[in-house]
Specification:
By secondary structure, the chain is an alpha/beta fold. The chain is 38% helix and 21% strand. It has 2 domains: 291 residues, Aldehyde Dehydrogenase, Chain A, domain 1 (3-Layer(aba) Sandwich), CATH 3.40.605; 187 residues, Aldehyde Dehydrogenase, Chain A, domain 2, CATH 3.40.309. The longest helix is centred in the N-terminal third of the chain and has 28 residues. The protein is globular. The mean pLDDT is 98. The structure holds nicotinamide-adenine-dinucleotide.
């Protein structure tokens, strides 16, 4: 038996490649974009390593060119979900007993493969299927995914190293067992890295998973399955189940082996899954771990001492990059009336410079929103603002879904701090701004804290550091990731572990060790070196 103690020190974050014209990474990516654009992939269900095709199919299209089909995928029925549970439990027998350093080696190989061979493949699939420009794809499907792999191995080594002390005449240690059952990973469309991480974190800790990918990101997620296989992940450890979320959720949460859910998506969906788990309590082998990162209504709070250009840049990038479809995207801003005209002027200037369109035209800063339902939802909010007496659209607002699901970067200004779009998550490129009286900072902080049910991300801007401190304290529970003089997006694995509380989730911080701890059930073992042979207390002995 190999008895080496292998070290996994803190890794470096994966560098973001520049993709300058003519660079090797740009040439490889463009070739791969062309290949994938001209291919229609037939995506199977994968259970126990076997490909299954039910013939009941759905389509993956380019959101920016929605008549163009990239892939068809086969949908599961109840039967396949049941088969996946059986396959996962079979794999559990071996995987849960596999030395953790072997599991770590497979995860680290995933990182190496993604940094090299799979980088253009994943980036191209993410660009075409999820409508991201090169930069947004690179920081997601390449760098963040790689960082999750590498950092989680480091975090796991820290956890396994946490051991109790020995007593007099006894040895103590903690064995970190995986959960007794399977984990259901239900993943969102917006980050390939999150989709990967929701499966691979429990898997690294020795668990097996059922993976329900988001319909619109099925293509990039399928390539991830190929990557895991090539890295040596045994069959059945992750079972890939495209299809109806409600069906998969219902069957999985009814199994006695349902041991946990690793979810990212909307608050409503997580609430449904939580309720389903609650209804089945008593039927399960263990209390399931319910880990979910959900919606947000992320804010920028501006103090009168703030720098207008810094605010405008943060608001523009924080609200509009990837079409505002980051859970952390700025979607409401509180700004002193004295600063607003200048900030709006700079944002208008930026908006006049950026182009919107297809991901294959690398001059485009803005691409399309994910699908028609999302476009219709965003359209509803902008139309509502256009017709409201207490709000007006002061930037952008044009939208067109004839070729792709396009929405211009849009700013709504309102005199009503409780205006609908100040309170509800839209998940699109729409920022609502409430200009407040400069002498009413405290009242505005209170509004910011109490307006929305969420608590995901937020930012404060100001040069007066003491005032910034006071605002930071006033907004203590308003965000799980809080930024001072920076936009509220762009958390980096290992640097800013990510997640929020209130209606934004269980705040188990992806990209930090807290998350890994949710996927283990420790067993503490005490070994007494010489067992007692007399029941009497010392003072009772003659
Ligand atoms: P969504 O809730 O619509 O879907 C998430 C996943 O749940 C998808 O795979 C979907 O198919 C599945 N699903 C839908 N209904 C289901 C059901 N009844 N049972 C089981 N599964 C079901 O979310 P989305 O549109 O993919 O993503 C956008 C949302 O995700 C936004 O609310 C955003 O704020 C949130 N998000 C949060 C974070 C975070 O870290 N807090 C990160 C990314 C996205």
């Amino acid at each position: 038996m190999n008895n080496a103690i292998i070290n996994f020190p803190v890794p470096a974050n994966e560098p973001v490649k520049a993709y300058l014209e003519g660079s090797p990474e740009r040439v490889a990516l463009d070739a791969e974009l062309k290949r994938q654009y001209n291919t229609v992939v037939d995506i199977p269900i994968i259970i126990g390593g076997k490909e299954i095709r039910t013939g009941n199919t759905g389509k993956v299209v380019c959101p920016h060119d929605h008549k163009h089909v990239l892939a068809t995928f086969h949908k599961v029925s109840e039967k396949e979900v049941q088969m996946a549970i059986d396959a996962a439990m079979e794999a559990h027998k071996v995987w849960s007993e596999t030395p953790w350093t072997t599991r770590a080696a497979i995860v680290l190989k995933c990182a190496e493969l993604l940094a090299t061979k799979y980088r253009p493949i994943l980036n191209a699939a993410c660009m075409l299927g999820q409508s991201k420009n090169i930069y947004q794809a690179e920081i997601d499907s390449a760098c963040e995914t790689i960082d999750f792999f590498r950092y989680n191995v480091h975090f796991a080594s820290k956890i396994y190293n946490m051991q109790p002390k020995n007593g007099v005449g006894n040895i103590n240690h903690t064995e970190y067992r995986p959960l007794e059952g399977f984990v259901l990973a239900v993943t969102p469309f917006n980050f390939t890295s999150i989709a990967s991480n929701l499966c691979m974190t429990p898997v690294l800790m020795g668990n097996v998973a059922l993976w329900k990918p988001s319909t619109t990101s099925t293509l990039s997620n399928y390539y991830l399955m190929q990557l895991y296989k090539e890295a040596g992940l045994p069959d059945g450890v992750i079972n890939f189940l495209p299809g109806s979320g409600s069906l998969i959720g219902k069957v999985a949460t009814s199994s006695k082996w349902f041991a946990g859910i690793h979810f990212t998506g909307s608050t409503g969906t997580f609430n449904t899954l939580w309720r389903q788990a609650g209804e089945n309590l008593g039927h399960y082998v263990s209390y399931p771990r319910l880990v979910g990162e959900t919606g947000g209504k992320d804010f920028i709070f501006v103090h009168p001492s703030a720098d207008a250009k810094a605010v405008a840049t943060a608001a523009f990038c924080g609200a509009f990059e990837f079409q505002g479809q980051k859970c952390s995207a700025a979607s409401r801003m509180y700004i002193p009336k004295s600063l607003w005209p200048e900030v709006l002027g700079i944002m208008k200037q930026y908006a006049s410079e950026v182009k919107m369109g297809d991901v294959m035209d690398h001059g485009n800063f803005i691409n399309a929103v994910i699908d028609e339902a999302s476009w219709d939802n965003i359209n509803g909010y902008i139309s509502f603002a256009e017709q409201s007496a207490d709000a007006k659209v002061v930037l952008g607002g044009k939208r067109d879904k004839s070729v792709g699901y396009f929405v211009e970067p849009t700013v709504i200004e309102t005199s009503n701090p409780h205006f609908k779009s100040m309170e509800e998550e839209i998940f699109g490129p729409v920022l609502t701004v409430f200009p407040y009286d400069d002498d009413k900072v405290d009242e505005a902080v209170k509004l910011c804290d109490t307006t929305s049910p969420y608590g995901l991300t937020g930012a404060v801007f100001g040069k007066d550091r003491l005032a910034v401190e006071k605002i930071t304290n006033g907004l203590r529970y308003a965000a799980g990731n809080f930024y001072i003089n920076d936009k509220p997006t762009g958390a980096v694995v290992g640097n800013q572990p990510f997640g929020g509380a209130r209606a934004s989730g269980t705040n188990d911080k992806a990209g930090g060790e807290f998350n890994l701890i949710r996927w283990i059930i420790p067993r503490v073992i005490k070994e007494t070196l010489v067992s007692p042979t007399d029941y009497r207390y010392t003072y009772m002995k003659k």
